[in-house]
Amino acid sequence: MFELFFAMVKEEWRVHSTIFGNLSFALFPVLIFWIALMGSFLLPVFREALPAGNLSIVIHSTFLMLGFMVGAFGLLGTEVMNRRFGQASLLSYSARSLPLSERVIFTTFVIKDTVYYFFLWVFPFGLGFAVASPFIGLPPVVPALLLLTLTLAFLYGLCVIFFLSTVYSRSKKILGVLLLVIAAGIGGITVLTGTNPARFFPPLILFTDFSWEMLAVSCTVILLLFVVSLLLFSPDISGTSKHYQNRLSPLTRKLSFFPSPPLAAKDLIDLSRSGSLIGQTLFSFLIPLVVIWFFLSVLSGYFPPHGLLLMFSCVTGVIASTMYTWLTMFDTFGAYACLPVSVRTLIVSKITSFSVLQLIPAFFIAATALLSGEGLYLFPALLLCIPISFFSLGVTVWLTGLSPSVLVYDVKVMVTYLALSGLAVTLMSGLAFTDPLYSLAGLLLLFPAWWFMRKGMTRWESREQPGF
Amino acid sequence: MQDNYPDRFSCRDRNPHISSDVHNSTEIPAGDVKPALTTVMQAEDLTKVYGDLTAVDHVTLSVEKGELFGLLGPNGSGKSTMIKMMTGQIRPAGGSAHVLGIDVMTDPVGVRKLVGIIPEQETPPSFLTAAEYLDFVGAIRKIPDIGERAAWWFDFLDFADKKDVLCKDLSRGTRQKLMFAQAFIHTPELALIDEPLINFDPIMQDVVKKYLAGYVKDGNTVFLSTHILEIAEEICSRFAILHKGRLLYTGATADLGDRHLDGLFLSLVQKERHV
User: Fold this and answer.
1) Are A274 and B127 a contacting pair at CB < 8 A?
2) Confidence category of residue A53, pLDDT binned at 50, 70, 90
3) What is the spatial distance between Cα A220 and Cα A213, in angstroms, rounded to a whole number?
4) CB contact A88 to B (< 8 Å)
5) Mean pLDDT of A441-461
6) Residue-range domain boundaries for chain B
7) Does A364 score more than 80 pLDDT?
8) Backbone φ and ψ of B27, nearest 5°
9) B35-115+189-275 architecture in CATH?
10) Mean pLDDT of chain A
11) Across residues A191-195, what is the average pLDDT?
12) Which residues pair with B243 in a beta bridge?
């Protein structure tokens, strides 16, 4: 078990370092450390605008999201192995040739992912804060406690997504019921106590008021969710001979107004048959955004009137731009290498499919606006969300071409993406806060979006396509 | 075996499974450009470097129309890299390459329009069925009668029962059949095929070998990469031996005389190792 664990960690490192180079990838945790260090020095400035309690909510929610992200990326039920590793032969496949069960391998895989991403993201952040804390007048116990609670927040994200995705792989109906129960529970808490449910998040409670009992409860919940998930896990059994009706030709005809109808049809079939459309919408879009809504609503006092919906629309725009990864994550250029298809054609097709998927954030923002009683501001909200999504997509295409889910771990790519998307969000939310009508300026974002996309197509067309 | 396959795309006289009365037509599919060339493939000083490794080292070779040319070499000798460069999948570090008169560096998509390719690894899209994949290839290549052609290939390679199964659930052999079908479904003048027989059983190997022999007799050209020397000796008219990216030998199979290809291959490779 230990040998397998260490081999998996080594393998994960080599996958990343082969893609980015040893030094470039080794710099990733250094970057996180640096961001935390510099951010900590700015804490005294932040504190004047934002009480420490609310700031901790923002940081904990970020790490909860990180757990969701890692979990959703790697642990989507029965499709996990195929999605994560594609055609590559990695240790996760060793059940085929070694006397190890799928469950043992998968358990080790989960532990490896937890430890690996802890040291990649969580630990460098905690360390950066710890190094800065003496200079900003914080006792050493605060960074130690923060490291603990951030780890717990990250693990919560990971195990919740893991649990829900394994339930999803067993029965979509049970998952639906479960989500309804959770939603009813959260709604009930909000109505009965009048408190934002985000304040009941155990790592947050621990951070503000540490107790060994709460720590034990937190650890037990995490452990329980992991164990139940592992028990529910069902390995993907390939080689089934289930027959499917030919959907490509009719769909290609229906999409004849698209730039590349067969490519668009293939994308839609891929999304539907792989379970991505439902799975990703739930785990990478809806659940994170519902959580973000609760955390943002804690900060609503700091926003101008209607600011919460407008800010939420900006954030939804950025999250919606990641739908591009849904279309590219298990569709490498290798599958097209024997066909007369250029990288540009493929990117154009992915952008077209992405545009269709933008109906999801549009409906989501519409529902949020109506449910929160802000229906009047639906139009400005959409004008923020969709252009920001296309702008972030343009940046993604320019930076990563057809490999966004892999190249995101390149330090330069990550920093540039965050800086440009952050700039767009800051600018647009600033304008919208001044006057919701200024959201119209969101349409102007489509110009740089288009420019980035064109630049990206030229850039990646002239490069050899990476083989991952 | 289906009899209504358009005869212009087949080589029925060479294939024992197909009736021999319909093979004479040489009609070309609409839209295909067939330049009048003798040399269909030309590589000059072609080089590919990956970091410290020179995968292909200043290779010059040409393939003539109607040849079944075998590129032979041990694993890692640069055969697949050569095919990838000749089809514009990767860019050479130096030298030049022309396929059917097209410069692969300036118009790689143009090359892929005209040729058929079987890549090193069989990678049809996971979530399409075999039939959908051939439809997909037909739509990309703009083949009007793709349904008819696909049906013929399912029958010919004996996997019609798997046509509605997702590609990810197909066995390696069936995936190889599918990749073989997609490479020849538009009846290219030139096919570049990388280890096309490796996952086939002996019966299917025999079917495919006969198909390839018939295909070149019809005036088409096949560039075959393999490390299975018996196959190369049996079906190739000319061959080249590649080792550690360097071209060691080029010659005609007929010129081997009493010698066997494996003897020549081993002596050349071992000599190179000593050097």
Assistant:
1) yes
2) low
3) 10
4) no
5) 94
6) 35-115+189-275
7) yes
8) -60, 140
9) 3-Layer(aba) Sandwich (3.40)
10) 82
11) 79
12) B246
Q: Does position A93 have pLDDT exceeding 80, yes or no?
A: no
Dihedral sign computed on CA atoms, order A333, A336, A340, A345: negative
- Whether the CB-CB separation of A83 and A77 falls below 8 Å is answered with no
Strand pairing category for B53-64 and B39-50: antiparallel
Q: How confident is the model at residue A167 (pLDDT cuts 50, 70, 90)?
A: confident
Q: Under DSSP, is residue B169 helix (H, G, I), strand (E, B) or coil?
A: helix
- Find out whether B192 and B83 touch, Cβ atoms under 8 Å: yes
Taking the C-alpha atoms of residue B66 and residue A83, their distance in angstroms, rounded to an integer, is 43
Q: What is the pLDDT of residue A85?
A: 42
The reported pLDDT for the residue numbered A24 is 66
pLDDT of residue A1: 67
Cβ neighbours around B101 below 10 Å, total: 15
Edge-to-edge strands of the sheet including B53-64?
A: B53-64, B39-50, B94-99, B102-103
CB A108 within 8 Å of CB A90: no
Q: What is the mean pLDDT of residues A198-211?
A: 85
Q: What is the pLDDT of residue A89?
A: 45
A338 contact B CB<8A: yes
Residue in A with minimal Cα distance to B126: A270
The torsion of the CA quartet A441, A446, A447, A452, rounded to 10 degrees, works out to 140
Residues paired with residue B62 on neighbouring β-strands, in sequence order: B42
Given an 8 Å threshold on Cβ–Cβ distance, is A335 in contact with B123?
yes
The CB-based long-range contact list for A129-135 (8 Å cut-off, 24+ gap) reads A129/A36, A129/A37, A129/A39, A129/A40, A131/A33, A131/A37, A131/A40, A132/A36, A132/A37, A132/A40, A132/A41, A132/A43, A133/A40, A135/A41
Interface mutation vs chain B, best among A17, A247, A248, most B CBs within 10 Å: A248
Using alpha carbons only, give the angle B210, B264, B77 rounded to the nearest 5 degrees: 80
Cβ-Cβ pairs closer than 8 A, A with B, add up to 102
CA of B225: how far to CAs of A245, B122, B191, B232, in Å? 36, 15, 11, 9
Give the single-character DSSP code of B88: T
Of B91, B125, B169, the CB nearest to A241: B169
Beta strand segments in chain B, E: 39-50, 53-64, 68-72, 94-99, 102-103, 116-118, 190-194, 221-226, 238-243, 246-252
Is residue A180 predicted with pLDDT exceeding 70?
yes
Q: In the predicted model, what is the mean pLDDT of residues A342-367?
A: 92
Q: Check pLDDT > 90 for residue A385.
A: yes
> b/e for A194-227, b at 16 or more Cβ within 10 A?
eebbbbebbbbbbbeeeeeeebeebeebbeebbe
Contact B124 A331 (CB under 8 A): no
Nearest to B141 among A240, A273, A340 (CB): A340
For B109, the closest of A263, A266, A340 (CB atoms) is: A340
Answer positive or negative: Cα dihedral of A75, A80, A85, A91: positive
> Which residue positions in chain B have pLDDT lower than 70?
1-37, 122, 273-275
pLDDT confidence band for A77 (50 / 70 / 90): very low
SS (H, E, C) B42-59: EEEEEEEEECCEEEEEEE
Chain B residue with minimum CA distance to A338: B117
Query: Is the CB of residue B106 less than 8 Å away from at least one CB of chain A?
Result: no
Nearest Cα to Cα of residue B261 among B252, B274, B270: B252
The pLDDT value recorded for residue B275 is: 63
